[in-house]
């Protein structure tokens, strides 16, 4: 739909690559912190004499030994920040989906209204065609009636004139016969 320049595409690809690297580095760091917390938790449980807790965690392979896992003071802040970032991201994704669904619904509604309008227009055209046909038939019937009436009048007038001529001829013939006699 839109024409995007190669320069813009390259810039976007670089930004995506950079963000992907940052994301992966963050994930690795989070994994290390989780493992540190897990190791510390296991150690605390061992100290308390709860050896049954250790069972499921022994199978996990840790990337760092327990001595290299200092628990940072900012862990709570980082967890809170991560939660805020994740919530913001989920909100953005949800808003994007809702916007896309809204646009799709608007497009569907517009197309459906177009279908209904075309159907209505076709129906109106068909009704108009039938109306014009009916008007044409009525006009033809009236014209035929009018012509027949006029023809009847002309015929009656012609008959009257013919009768008058005949009567005049008879009168003339009678008058001539009377004069001759």
UniProtKB/TrEMBL annotation:
- What is the annotated signal peptide range for this record? none
Identify the Gene3D superfamilies for this entry.
1.20.5.190
The record's annotation in Pfam families points to:
IQ
* Coiled-coil segments on the chain, per record: none
Highest taxon in the source lineage: Eukaryota
Asked whether the UniProt record includes Repeat among its keywords, one would answer yes
Q: Which UniProt keywords apply?
A: Repeat
Q: Which InterPro entries match?
A: CellDiv_DevSignal_Domain, IQ_motif_EF-hand-BS, P-loop_NTPase
Q: Does the keyword Repeat apply?
A: yes
PANTHER family the UniProt entry points to: MYOSIN MOTOR DOMAIN-CONTAINING PROTEIN
Instruction: Specify the protein name.
Output: Uncharacterized protein
Where does this protein come from, organism-wise? Geodia barretti
């Amino acid at each position: 739909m839109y024409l995007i320049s190669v320069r813009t595409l390259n810039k976007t690809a670089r930004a995506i690559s950079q963000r992907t690297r940052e994301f992966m580095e963050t994930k690795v760091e989070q994994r290390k912190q989780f493992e540190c917390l897990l190791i510390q938790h296991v150690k605390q449980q061992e100290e308390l004499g709860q050896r049954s807790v250790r069972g499921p965690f022994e199978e996990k392979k840790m990337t760092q030994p327990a001595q290299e896992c200092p628990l940072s003071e900012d862990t709570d802040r980082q967890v809170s920040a991560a939660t805020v970032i994740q919530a913001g991201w989920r909100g953005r994704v949800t808003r994007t989906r809702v916007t896309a669904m809204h646009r799709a619904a608007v497009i569907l509604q517009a197309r459906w209204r177009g279908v209904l309008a075309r159907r209505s227009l076709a129906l109106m055209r068909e009704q108009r065609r039938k109306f014009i046909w009916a008007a044409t038939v009525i006009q033809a019937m009236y014209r035929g009636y009018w012509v027949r009436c006029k023809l009847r009048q002309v015929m009656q007038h012609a008959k009257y004139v013919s009768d008058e001529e005949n009567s005049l001829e008879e009168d003339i013939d009678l008058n001539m016969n009377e004069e001759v006699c």
